[in-house]
Design brief:
499 residues; alpha+beta; Butyryl-Coa Dehydrogenase, subunit A, domain 1; Butyryl-CoA Dehydrogenase, subunit A, domain 2; four-stranded mixed sheet; four-stranded antiparallel sheet; binds flavin-adenine dinucleotide
């Protein structure tokens, strides 16, 4: 692997102690990763024999779990750094570990009782037991309010019935955190709850492995729950508060997923830089061609902003619910764009599987869909923006900070304008909220890039932040246009154009 041109996520640690611990772990991950054959994993549709044990020996399954029960007790930031490092080698492996650390165990760690921790954390931290998370159902994907799996309490026991689909780690997991409708529980008439189910609980049945476009080494199955009766202590957190717990778990999961996208972005950048330095056309390495050179510089700036945003997100638990939305959207779109750029700059060879960049593209595709489809999250971010999400004033950082403030002020202005124009109909203005959400993700990425440049204090970092600010400003034009009150709305398109 060539020298990285920008420091990977693990090099951006918030303090020296964290840097040392994470750095040592990432070195181990890199040694293990050097022996991984991503294309072989893809072809086998499974992880190699013995790999889970080697990951467990490194302690990777315990990173986010409490120290008193055998975990590392790492912060979100530290877990994100290791996930990104793994993803740089193989996205299926990173997804297996990242899902365990995020969606799979976060509910237990954050909302579990001391007894639940004592019972479940030790085998999860050692990697003896793998965790999965099951919210999606045939009738409930983007709309998790439609979850039909029911957990009904009688005589101190829950009876759980329902069907889950697309469960990552489904074929490996010993423990599932499931989201279920819990009518009446905790006084919430239509509440939801998170429950722990063990793979051996009678009535739990894991389906066959799905055949996927990418992430083929990562297990994905359905999960059938047929009259599963479990004690009340399988409920996580407060009765009736499941929706709030779910939102916290998703915020963690999305942040780790965004970190994985940074790993994919790095792998794509490594590949494109390597290729462009060696491929000669027009009597010189193609990296010297002006258009290619500009595209490589843009790719570096995009990756710089992605890593900055993950760091910014993970560093502030208060802002996690909102920032994780922007991080998920920005980093998954960024990973896709970087993988696509890598394919393009490889020319015809990029389309051939042997080169390896086609795999990056296939693996990256799902990240724009799972853990919340990006278009759904944009609408959500747009709505939050009309409620006025607080933002740090960056003016003290100088001209770059002022430019970021100006962009953010423009987004605030259109958000306020949209709110005023739509009034009580705002919640239904999905097209406009979607455009606003796109702006929020871009502004968040600019803020993070500017803060990162200020923190790193190098001319390279400043140049990357300036370049990203330019790109992001250009990308804001289309959504700003969509939000302009005098735009040609869909309603004014001649009806004969509609099918
Ligand atoms: C490989 C893989 C792994 C997964 N792992 C897990 C897992 O571990 N646990 C789990 O619970 N789930 C998992 N999922 C499920 C995943 O999170 C869902 O597929 C995703 O949330 C989208 O739901 P859906 O597929 O039902 O799409 P739908 O909800 O049917 O949406 C389809 C498309 O319609 C559009 N759309 C829908 N609603 C809106 C809206 N309001 N505004 C704008 N556009 C909209 C979007 O483009 C969306 O992509 C996984 C899926 C896959 C493929």
């Amino acid at each position: 692997m060539p020298e990285p041109t920008i420091p990977p996520l693990g090099d951006l640690a918030p303090d020296a102690e964290s840097a040392e611990v994470v750095g040592a772990l990432i070195d181990s991950v890199d040694r293990l990763g050097a022996g991984l054959d991503a294309r072989a994993i893809d072809a086998a549709h499974a992880l190699p024999e013995g790999l889970l044990s080697r990951l467990a020996e490194l302690g990777l399954f315990g990173l986010s779990l409490p120290e008193e029960h055998g975990g590392f007790g790492f912060s979100l930031w530290e877990c994100a750094s290791v996930t990104a490092a793994l993803a740089r080698h193989d996205r299926s492996v990173a997804t297996t570990v990242g899902l365990h650390l995020g969606l799979g165990t976060r509910g237990l760690v954050a909302f579990g009782s001391p007894e639940q921790h004592a019972r479940w954390v030790p085998p999860l931290a050692s990697g003896e037991m793998i965790a999965a998370f099951a919210a999606t159902e045939p009738g409930a994907g983007s709309d998790l309010g439609a979850i039909a799996t029911r957990a009904v309490e009688t005589d101190g026991m829950f009876r759980v019935d329902g069907s889950k689909i697309f469960v990552t780690n489904g074929g490996l997991a010993g423990l599932f955190t499931i989201a279920a409708s819990t009518p009446g529980l905790g006084g919430a008439r239509r509440g939801q709850g998170l429950l722990l189910l063990h793979v051996d609980d009678p009535g739990v049945e894991v389906g066959a492995e799905e055949v996927k476009l990418g992430l083929r080494g990562s297990s994905t199955t359905s999960l059938s729950l047929d009259g599963v009766v479990v004690p009340r202590d399988r409920l996580l957190g407060e009765p009736g508060k499941g929706a709030a717990h779910l939102s916290h778990v998703l915020a963690w999961g999305r942040s780790l997923m965004a970190a994985g996208c940074c790993g994919t972005g790095h792998a794509a950048l490594d590949a494109m830089q390597r290729h462009c330095a060696s491929r000669v056309q027009f009597h010189r390495p193609i990296e010297k061609l002006p258009v290619v050179a500009a595209q490589l510089a843009d790719a570096r700036a995009l990756l710089f902003s992605m890593e900055a945003l993950v760091r910014h997100t993970a560093a502030d638990p208060e802002a996690l619910p909102t920032r994780s939305l922007a991080a998920k959207v920005h980093c998954s779109e960024g990973a896709w764009e970087l993988a696509d750029r890598a394919v393009q700059l490889h020319g015809g060879s990029g389309y051939i599987e042997e080169t390896g960049v086609a795999l990056l593209l296939r693996d990256a595709r799902i990240t724009r869909i799972f853990e919340g489809a990006n278009d759904v999250l944009r609408v959500h971010m747009g709505l939050l923006a009309t409620m006025g999400v607080p933002r740090q004033d960056l003016a003290p950082l100088g001209s770059l900070g002022l430019a970021a403030d100006a962009l953010a002020a423009e987004v605030d202005r259109v958000a306020a304008d949209l709110k005023r124009r739509k009034g009580a109909r705002l919640g239904g203005a999905h097209v406009e909220l979607h455009a606003l959400g796109s702006l929020v993700a871009l502004v968040s990425s600019v803020d993070a890039a500017v803060l990162r440049a200020a923190h790193e204090q190098t001319s390279e970092a400043r140049n990357l932040a300036v370049r990203w600010l330019d790109q992001a400003t250009a990308r804001c034009l289309a959504p700003l246009r969509a939000l302009s009150p005098d735009r040609v709305g869909i309603q004014s398109v001649p009806t004969e154009l509609h099918p």
